[in-house]
């Protein structure tokens, strides 16, 4: 059985293995033991905190195979993007110029550096073992974060965003970065993303041009990258799109990947999840597949299970399911259909 739980200090070696296998552009999962150790410590502090509102907390989750005790995925929630420093993005919008004498009005798309998205809750760090891609466990890894937000709503903002990794080729080259960012840093795309993961995006963003970049002046290959998703990032996009997230006018600073946005209260797993009482049962006549979680904080657990869910009735769970969720007979759990 696979269970999603908060990260622990002893997870560091396996977490670094996941970081090595993660997609270039997932800067919140750096392949650096010291940086990962800091992230784990910060997450443990966040889960232990008595926060009454959203602040600098980050909640890091891992997906563990209970049989092998191997980690097969991870994901994260940053309660407030831009809490300690601006959260930079590029805003893609039209600039309109007009001439009365010539009776001409013309709109040109332009990219402007901004930190408009600071203050929103940020989903990041999604990575799952390739063997589990396009399975219900990918849904668990992504959506269980949303069930956690539903259970602890005061800790999070009224809107949630996530940046989807943009296009780069099999050699790790990003046409967008090569056309724009590389001119200001003389760094390959992969190296810029690595530095961003080790330090922060602010020191790079502050060296980016502060004036609008007119899109038609970029090479065609770079223009085609704007809002384009890396093939390996498509699943993360699809899962959240089904949750009600939408693209907007903001793109990633380095690879031009799209940003997804949703009002927290309108997200499907938050708006439609329900809490029910459980009853331990030796067997289940399964009729559907569900995501389940307890509503704990430091002891948060979530799984995928085949269940028979009847309205206004206690929910039957096997002993193994109860153990994975760390709940007992009569406990409440949160669930939503896959």
Automatic annotation (TrEMBL):
Biological-process GO terms, alphabetical: L-arginine catabolic process
Segments crossing the lipid bilayer: none
Keywords assigned by UniProt, alphabetized: Acyltransferase, Arginine metabolism, Transferase
Entry-linked Pfam families: AstA
InterPro entries: Acyl_CoA_acyltransferase, Arg_succinylTrfase_AstA/AruG
Xref: Gene3D superfamilies: 2.40.40.20
SUPFAM superfamilies: Acyl-CoA N-acyltransferases (Nat)
Enzyme class (EC, first level): transferase
Molecular function GO terms recorded: arginine N-succinyltransferase activity
E.C. number: 2.3.1.109
Coiled coil (UniProt feature): none
PANTHER family: ARGININE N-SUCCINYLTRANSFERASE, N-SUCCINYLARGININE DIHYDROLASE
NCBIfam families linked to this entry: arg_catab_AOST
Protein name: Arginine succinyltransferase
Native organism: Pseudomonas fluorescens
Gene for this chain: astA_1
């Amino acid at each position: 059985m696979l269970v999603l739980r908060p990260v622990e200090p002893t997870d560091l070696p396996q977490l670094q293995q996941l970081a090595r296998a993660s997609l270039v552009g997932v800067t919140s999962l750096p392949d650096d033991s010291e940086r990962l150790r800091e992230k784990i410590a910060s997450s443990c502090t966040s889960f232990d905190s008595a926060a009454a509102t959203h602040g600098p907390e980050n909640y890091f989750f891992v997906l563990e195979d209970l049989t092998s005790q191997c980690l097969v995925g991870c994901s994260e929630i940053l309660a407030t993007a831009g809490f300690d420093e601006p959260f930079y993005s590029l805003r893609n919008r039209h600039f309109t110029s007009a001439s009365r004498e010539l009776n001409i009005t013309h709109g040109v798309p332009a990219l402007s550096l901004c930190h408009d998205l600071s203050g929103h809750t940020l989903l990041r760090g999604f990575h799952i073992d390739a063997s589990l891609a396009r399975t219900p466990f990918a849904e668990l890894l992504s959506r269980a974060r949303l069930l956690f937000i539903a259970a602890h709503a005061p800790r999070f903002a009224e809107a949630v965003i996530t940046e989807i990794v943009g296009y780069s080729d099999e050699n790790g080259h990003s046409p967008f970065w090569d056309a724009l960012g590389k001119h200001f840093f003389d760094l390959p795309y992969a190296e810029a993303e690595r530095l961003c993961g080790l330090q922060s995006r602010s020191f790079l963003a502050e060296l980016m041009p502060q004036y609008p970049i007119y899109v038609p002046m970029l090479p065609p290959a770079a223009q085609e990258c704007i809002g384009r998703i890396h093939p390996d990032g498509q699943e993360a996009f699809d899962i959240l799109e089904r949750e009600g997230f939408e693209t907007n006018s903001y793109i990633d600073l380095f690879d031009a990947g799209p940003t997804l946005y949703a009002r927290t209260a309108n997200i499907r797993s938050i708006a439609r999840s329900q809490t029910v009482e459980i009853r331990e049962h030796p067997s289940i006549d399964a009729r559907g597949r569900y995501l389940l979680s307890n509503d704990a904080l430091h002891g948060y657990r979530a799984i995928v299970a085949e269940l028979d869910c009847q309205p206004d009735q206690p929910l039957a769970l096997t002993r193994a399911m109860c153990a994975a969720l760390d709940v007992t007979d009569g406990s409440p759990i949160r669930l939503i259909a896959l």
